[in-house]
Amino acid sequence: MTDFTTDTPVLRRCNAAPKREYYAYFALIFAATLPLSMLTWALKTARRMELPEKGPIASAWSQARIITPHIFSA
Asked: Which of 18, 19, 30, 43 makes an SS bond possible with 64, Cβ 3.0 to 4.6 Å?
């Protein structure tokens, strides 16, 4: 009989796949939200005649950061 209490085997988990999947979804969502963010940024700029605080890339990035975790938590 083997005694596993003193020298337990190390079980390794592969966490690379979920990270790659997360980054793939993040990239797709970022690419999808970028054109809409650019359009929204241009309309805000034209309407107010001043530059908004967030640029179109920062806006698309924050939208992707909000949407992607919702996909993985569902």
From this structure: 30
Query: Where residue 52 falls among pLDDT bands split at 50, 70, 90?
Result: confident
Residue 31 is part of which domain span? 25-73
Q: Are 13 and 44 in contact (CB under 8 A)?
A: no
**Does residue 14 lie in a domain region?**
no
Looking at residue 9, the DSSP 8-state letter turns out to be P
- Does residue 41 contact residue 55 with C-beta atoms inside 8 Å? yes
Give the separation between CA 26 and CA 56, rounded to whole angstroms: 16
Could you read off the pLDDT of 2-49 as tens digits, one per residue? 666 666 666 666 666 688 999 999 999 999 999 999 999 999 999 999
Question: Considering the domain boundaries, does residue 61 fall inside one?
Answer: yes
For residue 9, being part of any structural domain is answered with no
